[in-house]
Amino acid sequence: MTRVSVARELRQLLRLQGFRRLFTVRLVSQAGDGMFQVGLATLFFFSPESQGTAADVAVAFAVLLAPFTIVGPWAGVFLDRWRRRQVLVVGNAVRVGLTLTIALIMLTSGVGPWIYVLALVNLSVNRFLLAALSAAQPRVVDGPLLLTANSLAPTLGAVAAGLGGGIGLVLGLLLEPGRTKDAMSLFIATAVFGTASLLALRLGKDQLGPLRVSSPADVRNELVRVARGLVDGARYVWVRRTPGQALLVMGVHRFIYGVTFVASILIARNLLADPSDTQAGLATFGTILGASAAGFALAVVLTPTLSPRTGPHRWIGLMLLVAALSQALLTVTLTQATMLVGAVFLGLAAQGTKIAVDTIVQRDTVDGFRGRAFSLYDMLYNAAFVGAAALAAFTLPDTGYSRVVFGLLAVAYAAVAVCFTRFGARTAGDVPVEIERTADRPAG
């Protein structure tokens, strides 16, 4: 696929009204999420009160992500039974209330236990929304354009999150330390989430699926059906082979990536900047995130251009080798320049892998199981990061830099690339009839 054909397909995508409207909701919602997450990151990792040790960073990530690792698998069953348009409308509206409440508490009382509780709920809702966006995309895009859509939408969504985060970073650098600075980006994010909720109303009520909508049921029976649906979804993607293996590789990649991300926070705060100057550490980390975002943007160009020649399977292997290169570079020397170059390579690898995995899961999963597949995706995504944070707490010094650790991460990436390329399934397997029938099992 040439760059000309990519541009042509992008124009074709933007002519699809349903795609444009869903894409707009994604961009606005993720921009608000970028502001929200940067506000939390500034509070947890770059405020004068934070200690900035490997253990502190690991605990913060565990608090933010572990609960949704438990809740996440249940979301897909509802995405396969609730109108996904309504999920986008109500979910963003719920985030308005949660974010506004957090901002008011921070402004009036400072950081307390309720901040952590509400942040957990808020981030859990966001993961639910991202799963809904991915599950809904095949309903608004024609099959031949799905690869380009998977390159464009998530990557530019990540760019939108980066822009939102950039606004939050600028506010954090310009405003004087204090409660006003901590709350400001959250107040802005509240307005953005409200806009995303209103924009979702432009989509048709049933436009995003699923084909079957549940009837009301009591809570106990619904939980039983959720558990059964989760088991059905896991059996389906495993027997189907390609989506199950793609999800497994993405989980391993996320685990390795998580160690590097934690190391980047510590390096920016404690090594490349004076540990006592949290503003300088925040600015350094913002630069690293910007380099990573440049890698994300590069992936949106290279993946649809080159991956059709290799296929998504080999493309994932190639991207994992690029990730190995990013880690090997840091074993040679650590400077701000090598950190930025490594961040570009790792951003390219992370987003390039994600685009290909999304395509495999969407292509080889029927609509009745697609929501569950992407909820399992989110579960692995978050569980791997929590595990990585725990590993980083035991293996990284407080400066974040260890040649041995970065060398082992490079070897791990290369080993996964070789194993997946050589032994991974390239074609989807047949699913027994008894498993296929569970896709249409009514919820009520």
From TrEMBL:
KW Endoplasmic reticulum (keyword) present: no
Entries under PANTHER family matching the protein: INTEGRAL MEMBRANE EFFLUX PROTEIN-RELATED, MEMBRANE PROTEIN
Protein name: MFS transporter
TM region positions: 21-46, 58-79, 86-107, 145-171, 183-203, 246-268, 280-303, 373-394, 400-420
Subcellular compartments: Cell membrane
Presence of keyword Transmembrane: yes
Species the sequence originates in: Paraoerskovia sediminicola
Pfam families, per database record: MFS_1 (PF07690)
Alphabetical UniProt keywords: Cell membrane, Membrane, Transmembrane, Transmembrane helix
Residue ranges of every copy of the Major facilitator superfamily (MFS) profile domain listed in the record: 246-444
Alphabetized InterPro entries for the sequence: MFS, MFS_dom, MFS_trans_sf
Membrane topology term: Multi-pass membrane protein
Lineage, highest ranks first: Bacteria, Bacillati, Actinomycetota, Actinomycetes, Micrococcales
